[in-house]
Design goal:
Blueprint lengths: L1 H9 L3 H8 L4 H21 L12 H6 L8 H9 L3 H7 L1 H23 L9 H17 L12
The structure holds zinc ion.
Zinc ion (ZN) binds next to helix 4.
């Protein structure tokens, strides 16, 4: 297989061949990423953020007392792993709403790594600007008194 890849590389088709077949270490890397995700999910399931004291704290919240757009995401994930969707929405609504999209991007990327097929995401720049605007707006609004329900207290 290596020989055929090297021969194909001489005429410029080697990159396509390697990309289609995948590198030998890719399945192992994907398995390790999957194992890492499973271990992380188990830790989040078993040890409740905010009580366990083993999780990193948000520096913005610690220094300023303000909630950043990501504050409450670990607690939301803990609640989701226990099947409590409403409690998860309370801790970080934006994260919970975007989680299916994030999971789709992650799984598709992982499949691309595993198979060696290039993953093409057709993301238009204005989508990124809209996402950034939503993130900033969520971060600002959840710190305002009238939207205290969005703060992960
Ligand atoms: Zn934060």
């Amino acid at each position: 297989m290596i020989g055929s890849t090297q021969q194909a590389g001489a005429d410029g088709a080697g990159k396509d061949s390697v990309a289609r077949q995948g590198l030998p270490g890719r399945p192992l890397a994907c398995a390790l990423l999957g194992l890492l995700a499973a271990v992380g999910a188990f830790i989040l399931f078993r040890f409740e953020p905010g009580r366990a004291g083993i999780y990193p704290v948000c520096l913005l919240h610690r220094v300023t007392g303000l909630w950043c757009p990501g504050c409450g995401a670990l607690r939301a994930t803990h609640q989701l792993l226990h099947g409590h969707i409403l409690a998860a929405l309370h801790f970080n609504a934006l994260y919970v709403i975007l989680l299916p999209l994030l999971a789709w991007f992650g799984l598709r990327s992982l499949m691309g790594i595993a198979t060696g097929r290039p993953v093409h995401f057709e993301i238009r720049p204005w989508w990124l600007w809209c996402g950034l605007a939503a993130l900033v707006c969520f971060g600002v609004v959840r710190n305002l008194p009238f939207a205290a329900a969005l703060a992960p207290r």
